[in-house]
Amino acid sequence: MARIGLLIAALFLMAAAPLGLWQTADNSGVIEIKACGDALCGSLVGFRDQPPPKDYRHESECGLQFIQPMRLDKDGSYHGQILDPETGDMYRATLTLAADGTLHLRGYLGISLFGQTKIWHHYTGVLKPGCRLG
């Protein structure tokens, strides 16, 4: 019986998760956030500039999973790590779905005080092949 309760709780939490397409704060790209096991992951799926930029390995950032598995915390936010595609550096991060429907990504070193928050909005446009925005 406890397993059924845990399953229902997990499904409820994923239903409230910030899944879907999100436009970056500077409107230069689109991120897809999806479930990966019991966590959330995010990949770069759309770019205003074409061709998509190259990452630290000199490969296209198109499809790069830069939000590593983030797990739900009891405070309602997701905690994990993000990859800086330009340098390959990993940072701690928090994803929080705000009451106004925006998604807040805070990346930081050490403690959250030493970080920066970006605010993303749902992307309602079209994605085209090759990570092009429609």
How do you describe this structure in short?
The protein has one helix at residues 2-15, and strands at 20-23, 29-36, 39-47, 65-72, 78-83, 90-97, 103-108, 115-122, 127-128, 132-133. It has 134 residues and is mainly beta.
How many beta-strand segments? 10
Reading the helices and strands in chain order gives HEEEEEEEEEE
Strand order of the largest sheet: 1-2-3-4-5-6-7-8
The largest β sheet comes out as: 8 strands, antiparallel, barrel
Assess the beta-strand content as a share of residues. over 45%
The helix-and-strand class reads: mainly beta
Percent range of helical residues: 10-25%
Name given to the CATH architecture: Beta Barrel
Number of H/I helices: 1
Distance between the termini: 48 Å
Descriptive overview:
The chain has 134 residues and is mainly beta. It contains one helix and ten strands. Strands 1-2-3-4-5-6-7-8 form an eight-stranded antiparallel barrel. A two-stranded antiparallel ribbon has the order 9-10.
Supply the key terms.
134 residues, mainly beta, Lipocalin, two-stranded antiparallel ribbon, 10 strands
Topology of helices and strands:
Elements: H1 2-15, E1 20-23, E2 29-36, E3 39-47, E4 65-72, E5 78-83, E6 90-97, E7 103-108, E8 115-122, E9 127-128, E10 132-133
Antiparallel strand pairs: 1-2, 1-8, 2-3, 3-4, 4-5, 5-6, 6-7, 7-8, 9-10
